[in-house]
Amino acid sequence: IFLLIRNPKDVATSYYHYSNGLALLPSYETWDDFFTDFMTKKMAWGCYFEYLSEWNKYADKENIMTITYEEMKENPALSVKNIATFFGIPLNEEQLHLVLDRSSFQSMKKNSDKTHGSVGNILFRKGGVSDWKNLFTDDQSKEMDRAFEEHIAGTKLGKKLKYDLYCKA
């Protein structure tokens, strides 16, 4: 099982844009309204902190590989090599470069209409790290920091997220 996790502030930011772009989900007039629902567990797919807490129960299992979105952005080549090794897939340099090219955010965004249809432009918005800084107020950032500390900071997955590096302003 391959488990990809992402820092909670960027999850909320992406979900906000996704919700407002997809007609099937509730849209929000303001970021503040969305943030309130996100923090009070009123999301269609539940609470992200509870999701991480549940997966943390299995984080030490040998058949589960966990990687963060931030790790993949920092070093895509190493991430692809580690994923291939985990699944027992031999990968030569030519194959590695092909995978890196085809799985880059820019490539996936460019081809999203073919691969994901009309939701492609919604799914592939920016692909960056720390976009949360464009939406969160200082108080909202502190509130999410408290929730992180309360729910997952001391867990294996919480430590893997490198919260201080990616989530602290």
From TrEMBL:
The keyword Transferase applies. Keywords: Transferase. The gene is Sult6b1_0. One of its GO terms (molecular function) is sulfotransferase activity. It is an enzyme of class 2 (transferase). Its EC number is 2.8.2.-. Residues 3-155 form the Sulfotransferase domain. It comes from the Eukaryota. Belongs to the sulfotransferase 1 family. It holds the Pfam family Sulfotransfer_1. InterPro entries: P-loop_NTPase (IPR027417), Sulfotransferase_dom (IPR000863). This is Sulfotransferase.
